[in-house]
Design brief:
single chain, transmembrane helix, DUF6328, mainly alpha, membrane, 171 residues, 5 helices, elongated, transmembrane
């Protein structure tokens, strides 16, 4: 066998015989479908963070907790914007015949949105654990959650990507 692996050995969802346009259309739809999974989670986190200041609570937040809250709120807002951006751009640029550029921008936006979402998740864990328990446990818990997200969202896929052959784009 020469260096080309058959589709069943690639380990991906490559579709033989599809044109460049068909591949771009499919990849854009796959990306938008993936974002439909991520969006409810980030929107729920964002909504939770929006109502926190308006809840009656028996304790006052420390300066550290207020700073973590603000940073986490901003991260959730930015993640929400970045994860919604591909759908918004797709709608605004409908029938503009530039899906490949849209796909590249949307992929970057989604990737950055997921990274910022991880920051928001870690910040929320840090804040809640610090309020309910103590600062040491909060940092340990946030570090563990951050490490798990980095492992499953980055390390595993990048390792898999490095060890799988990629499809060459059609010209």
């Amino acid at each position: 066998m020469t260096g080309v692996r058959s589709p069943q050995h690639r380990g991906d969802s490559s579709h033989d015989g599809e044109s460049r346009k068909e591949r771009i259309d499919r990849e854009l739809m796959e990306l938008l479908n993936e974002l439909r999974v991520a969006l409810p989670g980030v929107q729920f986190l964002f909504a939770f963070l929006l109502v926190v200041p308006f809840q009656q609570q028996g304790t006052r937040l420390t300066d550290f907790q207020r700073d973590v809250y603000f940073f986490t709120l901003l991260a959730a807002a930015v993640a929400t914007g970045l994860l919604i951006a591909p759908a918004a751009q797709h709608r605004v640029l409908f029938r503009q015949h530039d899906k490949e550029a849209l796909l590249r921008r949307s992929n970057r936006s989604a990737s950055l949105g997921l990274a910022v979402l991880a920051v928001a998740i870690v910040g929320a864990v840090l804040l809640v654990t610090d309020v309910v328990f103590d600062r040491t446990l909060a940092w340990i818990t946030a570090a563990v959650v951050g490490a798990l997200l980095a492992w499953w969202w980055l390390a595993v896929p990048f390792w898999k990507r490095a060890h799988n052959e990629q499809d060459e784009p059609d010209d």
